[in-house]
Amino acid sequence: MNANSQHSFDPANLDLRGRTPPGYIAVEGPIGVGKTTLARRLAEAFNYQVLLEDAHENPFLERFYQNRKEAALATQLFFLFQRSQKIADLRQTDIFEPVRVSDFLIDKDPLFARINLDPDEYALYEKVFQQLTIDAPLPDLVIYLQASPDRLLDRILTRGVASERRIDREYLEQINEVYSEFFLYYDAAPLLIVNANEIDLSQGHEDFSQLVDYLLDIRSGRHYFNPTFFG
Question: pTM for the full model?
């Protein structure tokens, strides 16, 4: 199988069997886990609009990776305003027919603030957050991608973004810890937890097809998808 066929996925081959995809899907997970890739592929498969957080537009991000303490507040607030604006734009369209997939869940935004901001900065951030996210629409499905710090670090180094080379394993451990805690108690929307440690959803389509087939049956509750148990 050549490289092009490994990356391709023909939506026409998707077997819905009368099932309706979730109208609004939010994909979440730590940096390097593949959430943007999965969001794009789901959007292609379902012919959905894709909503991405566009981290490259944050002018403070490179400074943050160089010195997290000094640039953390500016970086965090930029992301918060950016994500809130995207949510506001989303609500200006027909919210009764969302058919969208995003690579972020606005509810998780404070996780990074808790890690990177000092108490006074976090208090300021929290006040802004409460004002900006009151009307965020609730996803019909949240997909949480999990992977170990070592696997995340490998993928970050492989994709070769210069500013991300300063990310260390300790920071990824912190991110994984707050994500795990957040989703341990998350029940605002149906949740699918995916073990992405041994797969790369940017490669091939067998694992992706299995994931799509699995999520089409989810309507409520908490679910787990481990591709190593399939096939």
Answer: 0.88
Q: For 148, which DSSP code?
A: -
Question: Nearest CA to 105 among 48, 188, 218?
Answer: 188
Site of tokens 């009368």: 18
Say if residues 73 and 117 touch (Cβ distance below 8 Å): yes
Structure confidence by residue, pLDDT tens digits, 92-135: 765 556 678 999 998 899 999 999 999 999 999 999 998 886 67
Low-confidence ranges of the chain (pLDDT < 70): 1-15, 93-98, 133-134, 203-204, 228-231
Strand order in the sheet with 24-28: 49-51, 100-102, 24-28, 141-146, 191-195, 222-225
- Contacts of 57-65 with C-beta under 8 Å, sequence gap 24+, read 57/82, 58/82, 61/163, 62/163, 64/116, 65/163, 65/164, 65/166, 65/167
Whole-angstrom Cα distance, residue 24 to residue 137?
9
Q: Which residues contact 212 (CB under 8 A, 6 or more apart)?
A: 14, 42, 45
Q: How far apart are CA 108 and CA 29, in angstroms?
A: 10
- How far is it, in rounded angstroms, from Cα 146 to Cα 152? 9
Write out the DSSP string of 84-116: HHHHHHHHHS-TTS--EEES--GGGTHHHHHHH
Q: Where would I find the beta strands (DSSP E) of the chain?
A: 24-28, 49-51, 100-102, 141-146, 191-195, 222-225
Cα distance between residue 46 and residue 82, in whole Å: 25
Give the chain's domains with CATH numbers: 21-229 (3.40.50.300)
